[in-house]
Amino acid sequence: MSSNWDSVPIGALEQIAECLGDDYSSLSNMRLVCTSWRDAVSSARICLCPRGYDDSPGAFVRPRVLDFSRRQFSPVMKSDYLHKFQKDSMRLLERCVLDNMQRIASLSALAPTMENCLLELSLQNSAVTDGMLLDVLPKLKLLRDLDLQGCLYLRGECIRGLEYTRELQVLKLGACGMDLVGALDAWKAVMPTLKNLRILNIMNNIVSDECIKELVGCTKLEYLDIRKCPDVTLYEGVYHLSRSLSRLETFKLGPLYHCSTDEIWQMIPRFKHVKALEIMGAVERHVRPLTDVLETSIWHVPRLEKLSLMDSQFDWSTMRVLSISCGATLEYLNLSRSQKKNAFWWDQRLEHQDTNVAFPKLKVLKCNNNRDISLTFLNHLLAAAPSLEDLDLSGLCLAPSAKTTRRFLVSGYQTGSRQLKEVYEFSRILGSLQHLEVLKLADTHLEDVHCTHLNQLGNLQIVDISKNAGVTDVPFDSGMQQWNNIRVLKLSGTQVSVNSFVAVGTVLEQLEELHISGTIQGLQEFCESIRSSPLKELHIEDCENLNDESLGIILSNCPEIKDLSLAGCCGLSPDGLLQVTMLPKLERLNLSRLHNALDDDTLQCIVSNNRSISELHLSGHENLSRDSLEFLLSSEMLQFVDISFCFGIGNDDQCTDIVTKRDSPIKIRLPQGTSRLGLVHARRSLSFE
To answer: How many CB atoms lie within 10 A of CB 647?
Structure first.
């Protein structure tokens, strides 16, 4: 008779793991039983014990990797295992990942384990200081990869320690707020010694042209990110790089406030090997039309594969020049948050222009949050890219609003038949993109007529049509076989019919993430149609007819759920919410706006029985008391708590006094919303956002 090892309660497995203590051999064998047993055993214990570990008396562990990046490690666990790691005097460590560490007292104790062997060190979003790094960097002479992104306590003095790491190939200092101008002397002394540097990220720091000029000696540089460095100018800084960085393949810059558009584009051809180019806000000032500049610029960059023009201005002439210059090689195009002046919902001027453009290899197109793009413009662009695999049009206007219609009438355009023609053309072109795998049309004024040909897309895996009240039906029933591959489906804010929801449960066998909202007739049939679904993320929000019985059926059929949202489902009772304890792998839970369905006892029971929860949303529960907050803060695994508008707990000052007593970091949203006090406190002693 075969045993069902997965049926053992997760709590019992964790107690067994605790009893095993430092018996690494038994812990390793325990992880090999099944998935639930592996999850019950902290990976920190195993990473301290590599293969071939000898547990005989007098032997000690010699690992090569120490990785605390996984979110399941609580701050206390990190501190305890780091202390044990320091005591064992191990000297074979090659990779050390200490991301999000807020309790690092010193790195010098780890130096003996890293000296002359460490190749990679990652300290993202950790509370490290310049002094800590200066203590350990001189001993890391073989270091090749250093990641300090988000380390807000650094001021720039640690740059002096890089003169000992001459084998460094990857240096990431992004979003540190570091003052490299103040440490200019150290920067000038260090950069010429880093001959092997291939990747450099210094975005969002205080950087000047003098700092950029010192990169001339890094002739092997392949990746450079200098975005959000407002003091960097074009000819004084970036221009000098083009003479020496002949291997540069990925270049990210902008916004550059001290130069015009044509100056930027004339500089690009100097980097002849660039394959990925990102320019933020490249149109602050114009000297001559962008099209004229492109004709003399990108034409000479034949290897360009990825282009991002976020926060820029463009028109159809820009697309035409891009097609001529790099259309044969372009695979990624980002036009998000761009500005197209004087655009209508349909653009009559395109009828008089050359619309013969082609992007045969384009696989990813992002035009999200771009309200000014006309539907005619979009139709021509989609028709030119038949190989699209990822299409993001979130935030566009695919149907005319009343305001837009008035603009047409005032301008004297005949809109009725033309609007309908453009809508049908969009639907037809969308259905012809047979390679499409990702489709995002959230908040685009989408209607049923736009979805007419969606059932022709047989390779779709991710579909997001949320926030479109005009969608009342999705062609699941007519395209059952074609939609079997869908993994993510977001329908929040739509008015889909009963048949569509039943089809979701019976047809989409690979569905892992589902978002629905609103009062839905036929929800009971949908709940019963799910059988052993692989759902890992389920959002059912503002559904008033969701009752305890329906929730129980869903949770019993979907035991693998890690992210559950029941916000606004007022038909649930406290007893119904306790059914959440059936989910052993639950990590994120949203119980906001449930009125009186959630009280102190119910909340404490849910959290105590779901020890893996790391993110909890409780907004709008005035009946929760101060005892609930104190109980939540006692959970070491909890990393984020939203108690906004929970005025029964107290005001921001009272909650802050409670939070400061917690030893481990946590991100919290205080009762009065995201107040200044809450943000300051989160930055000072809680986890970073």
So the answer is: 15
